[in-house]
Amino acid sequence: MCDFSTWLSRGWCRTEMWCKILSSRSDVPLVEVSGTDKVDFFVPFRWVDAPVPEGNFTVEADREVCCRITHAALEAKLGQLAGKRKHLNVFRYLSGRYEDFIGTPPATRTPESFASNFHIASLEKSAKQRKGVTAVACAILSGDIGMLRYLARSRAQLDMKMPELWEMALPAGCTALHLAAIKGSRGVEVLEELLILRSDPNACEQNGGSVLCYCQHERAVAGLSFLSSGLGSTEVDASSCRALLLLTCICAPPAVATRLLELRAQAQHFSAGVHKCRLFLSMLWVSIRLKLS
Fold first, then answer.
1. 58, 70, 144, 169: which could form a disulfide with 52 (CB 3.0–4.6 Å)?
2. Alpha-carbon distance 35 to 149, whole Å?
3. Residue 284: what pLDDT?
4. What is the percent of the chain where pLDDT is above 90?
5. What is the DSSP string of the chain?
6. Which SMART domains match (predicted)?
7. Residue 6: what are its φ and ψ, rounded to 5°?
8. Which residues lie closer than 8 Å to 23 by C-beta, 6 or more apart?
9. What pLDDT band is residue 217 in, cutting at 50, 70 and 90?
């Protein structure tokens, strides 16, 4: 029996989805046939949280095959985006999470190779920027703690704000800590490093979602709570973030919600205007379908 939820968990099905999204015709919606008289068009929000290497495979050897297919599709997509200024933010996001998506350890780069990989003309200028997919954002997305420390020593702007990337289900205003939180288990060490560097754990994106709202791993929640208080920086406030609705929107694991409840996060009354944000409404719709299917 295969429904929408199980389809999204299967490695081969994820491979099909990723190849479709990364293709040159990625603007064509996917079609879900759930009955003889029921067909839906849908855009797979949060597809970046369903990487092929983490899918379920009946035959384990197929995992490597599908990873190679996804690798080729991702390389082709990056080739299409490279050199096109209007697609620079998407290019840098995909390049940053490259290793996440193909299931390999984070790459370690020199400043020169880092700038070349992310098409950064001037690492010094990019490090000083507060808006956009900056050098700091690229270091976080790629999990390159060494580069993050290098940029911090160069007095880089760690309080950067991301532009809206609707293709990745990211609203405008996401901070460095938001980017680390969405990486799940692969972003915990980066998140902890950012807290050591005194990043604000209570910073919110444009729609009012705090970093806790974007945590994809319980260790990230625990790290935000423990390190922010232990380091003497601003203590994370779980009670006022009203994170549980947003966690539903982004399909966070149950362990994350459990940890937030332990920190007294509110389960009701989101005051930041989530009802006005079409992105979150779309994400909530997808989440409900996943839970009901």
1. 70
2. 53
3. 46
4. 42
5. ---HHHHHHBHHHHHHHHHHHTSTTTTSPEEEEEETTEEEEE--TTGGGS-GGGSB-SSTHHHHHHHHHHHHHHHHHHHHHTT-GGGHHHHHHHHHTHHHHHT-PPP---HHHHHHHTT-S-HHHHHH--BSS-HHHHHHHTT-HHHHHHHHHTT--SS-BPPPBGGGTB-TT--HHHHHHHTGGGGHHHHHHHHHTT--TT-B-TTS-BGGGG--SHHHHHHHHHHHHHTTSPPP-STTT--HHHHHHTT--HHHHHHHHHTT--SS---S-GGG-HHHHHHHHHHHHHHH-
6. ANK
7. -70, -35
8. 73, 77
9. confident
Phi-psi region of 245 (alpha: psi -120 to 50; beta: other; left: phi over 0): alpha
- CA–CA dist 82, 138 (Å, integer): 15
pLDDT at 263 (0 to 100)? 64
Provide the CATH number for the domain formed by 172-293 in this structure.
1.25.40
CA–CA distance, 178 with 205 (Å, rounded to integer):
8
What beta strand segments (E) does the chain contain?
A: 30-35, 38-42
Rounded distance between C-alpha atoms, residue 111 and residue 268, angstroms: 45
pLDDT at 31 (0 to 100): 80
Q: Are 191 and 180 in contact (CB under 8 A)?
A: yes
Task: For the chain, give the mean pLDDT.
Answer: 80
Indicate the pLDDT class of residue 276, thresholds 50, 70 and 90: very low
pLDDT at 18 over 90: yes
pLDDT above 50 for 290: no
Tell me: the pLDDT tens digits for 58-76? 999 999 999 999 999 999 9
